[in-house]
Amino acid sequence: MVFDLEVVARYLPFLLEGVGITVEFTLIAFSAGSVLGLLLALGRISKNPIFHYPAVAYIDFVRGTPLLAQIYLIHFGLPQIFGYTPVGYVDALLALTLNSTAYIAEIMRAGIESIDRGQMEAARSLGMTYVQAMRYVILPQALRRVVPPMGNEFIALLKESSLVSVIGMEDLMMKSRMMAGRSFRPFEAYFTAALIYLALTLTFSRILGWGERRMGKSAQG
Amino acid sequence: MLKVKDLHKKFGNLHVLKGVSLEVSKGEVVVIIGPSGSGKSTFLRCINHLEKPTSGHIFIDGVDLEAPTTNINVIREKVGMVFQQFNLFPHLTALENVTLAPEKVLKVPRSEARERAKALLSKVGLSDKCDSYPDQLSGGQKQRVAIARALAMQPKLMLFDEPTSALDPEMIGEVLAVMRELAEEGMTMVVVSHEMGFAREVADRVLLMADGVFVEEGPPREFFTNPKHERTKAFLSKIL
């Protein structure tokens, strides 16, 4: 048996249709997760128990359970409880967003906590409120520091988004399964899909690396 | 101006301040010396509530910091603080370091804040460093920016927490010169420092803190030449 390039060529446009969905899910979940993750991190850091404990519980739950279980829970579990008809697209996006939110929250928390305590003290000693000190002094510094781990999270999310194929999303993974079924060439199908994922992650990490260097230049200490 | 009554501070089981009282009147310069770990910095940090006192009272301009109605942020606007480690904001230029709090806290218009900041930076001898980032400044320059930053809030009281201890010897002079000028202009200052020359020439009063209490206080001439307590004598013999 040889690797059938002709099959790959025939199905490539079909697979690339799935790339759009994969990238779309990743970008949306990452963006929404970044905003929510930052808020969650601030809650986790807060000394107010009303914010602190729910944030801790949420982060622990999401990071301590498989994404696959979360997808099933949202897509099949919630409709059973609340009696509505599930929409795969919404559930997939929701699961990916809620999942990345928890991981991003921990990245943000680490970034904020890495800023020297003296920065907060200096800001507070000038009469700034906690919120002002966070906004103008701590976060601008912390956000620069989290760029590299955020890049890793983006790559991880891109790969894990393949799990939404289990609820019927026609992303790259799903398309490769369909290709395998139709062409009876599973190796060609999955190997090509894997290579496309690799191309995507390499491309994005190049872009992120370039962004990092630019941030580094403008950061000036 | 500043009145501290029977201040105690405990960190867990560690009793750092054991009943400290101090009154500082307007325009007075008070220098606190003492061995490390004696509570000098903690005392200073209690004055603007960077540390919350365990018990006792602090009054600034007659306002009781411990009163539940007191807004600590408003008090801090009037109390400038200079730190041993400078704590400049590294993502902002020297000028932006100085304008940030007036703009955000006092809502001073940007152009006015910038004008005032430029004047303050030239006062501390750094008019040519407005656009430099902290990383591009020497230790002495950083500390002078930090002083300008504190002054931008037009404080009535300035606290200095070992402002020259992290500096290379040749940079200490430039920072002390700025502080001396400030003292001459009538700023009320509480300085924790081991710069005996500064204490001798600029201070109105020198205090020795040891083991969480003020052991001795007096005008510098008397304090240095004729100390009364054994503890003071022992300390001075080590550092002079």
Word description of this protein:
The complex is a heterodimer of chains A (221) and B (240). Chain A is mainly α and 221 residues long. Chain A is built from nine helices and no strands. In chain A, helix 1 packs across helix 7 and helix 5 packs antiparallel against helix 6. The longest helix of chain A has 41 residues. The N and C termini of chain A lie far apart (58 Å). The relative contact order of chain A is 0.15. With 240 residues, chain B is an alpha/beta fold. Chain B has nine helices and ten strands. A six-stranded mixed sheet of chain B has the order 6-7-8-3-9-10, with helices on both faces. In chain B, strands 2-1-4-5 form a four-stranded antiparallel sheet, with helices on one face. In chain B, a hairpin with a 2-residue loop joins strand 4 and strand 5. The longest helix of chain B has 16 residues. The model of chain B has no long low-confidence stretch (mean pLDDT 94).
Topology record:
The complex is a heterodimer of chains A (221) and B (240).
Chain A: H1 5-45, H2 49-64, H3 67-82, H4 88-113, H5 117-125, H6 130-145, H7 147-160, H8 172-183, H9 186-219
Helix pairs in contact in A: 1-2, 1-4, 1-7, 1-8, 1-9, 2-4, 3-4, 4-6, 4-7, 5-6, 7-9, 8-9
Chain B: E1 2-11, E2 14-24, E3 29-33, H1 40-47, E4 55-60, E5 63-64, H2 72-78, E6 79-82, H3 94-104, H4 110-123, H5 139-151, E7 157-161, H6 169-184, E8 188-192, H7 196-202, E9 205-210, E10 213-218, H8 220-225, H9 230-239
Parallel strand pairs in B: 3-8, 3-9, 6-7, 7-8
Antiparallel strand pairs in B: 1-2, 1-4, 4-5, 9-10
